[in-house]
Structures are given as structure tokens and as C-alpha cells.
Design a protein that fits this description.
Strands 1-3-2 form a 3-stranded antiparallel sheet, with no helix packed on it. By secondary structure, it is an alpha+beta fold. The longest helix has 8 residues, at about 35-40. A hairpin with a 2-residue loop joins β2 and β3. Helices cover about 10% and strands about 30% of the residues. The protein is flat and about 35 Å long.
């Protein structure tokens, strides 16, 4: 399965986003910051591209049985 999202938001550097500290108790964690973590945990491949016409996020989840991408 391939999911592609495109927006015209402000570009950012995903590699510069701090990883969340999952060892902290929930009450001590800052609000937000789990989105990229969840994406990276669930998907087999994640690609970001930034261009004049906007930002594109491509997420790939392969078939666990066959190890292949879906057909649609």
C-alpha cells in the first residue's frame, strides 16, 4: 500500500525533529511530537520531498505475507 500526501505548508526538516522520550511518564511528556514517531513505527518506508509547488510525504506499507507493495 502506498499513501501519498501533498500540501502547501511550510517545509521542515524531519531529521531535525527530536525523537520523543517514551520513557517519561505521560504527565511529563510535552504535548505533540508523536506524529512522525507513529508514522516511522507503522510504515516500512517514509519519504519526504519539498519543492516549489509544495511538500510531499510518501508512506509505503508492504504486505507482511508476501513482502510486496499492494496493487492499489
Amino acid at each position: 500500500m502506498v499513501i501519498t500526501l501533498h500540501d502547501r505548508g511550510r517545509p521542515f526538516a524531519p531529521g531535525e525533529i527530536a525523537r520523543p522520550d517514551l520513557t517519561l511518564p505521560l504527565e511529563q511528556r510535552p504535548i505533540g511530537g508523536l506524529g512522525l514517531h507513529i508514522i516511522y513505527q507503522l510504515m516500512d518506508e517514509v519519504r519526504f520531498t519539498f519543492a516549489e509547488d509544495g511538500n510531499t510525504l510518501v508512506m509505503v506499507k508492504r504486505n507482511a505475507i508476501r513482502g510486496q507493495e499492494g496493487n492499489g
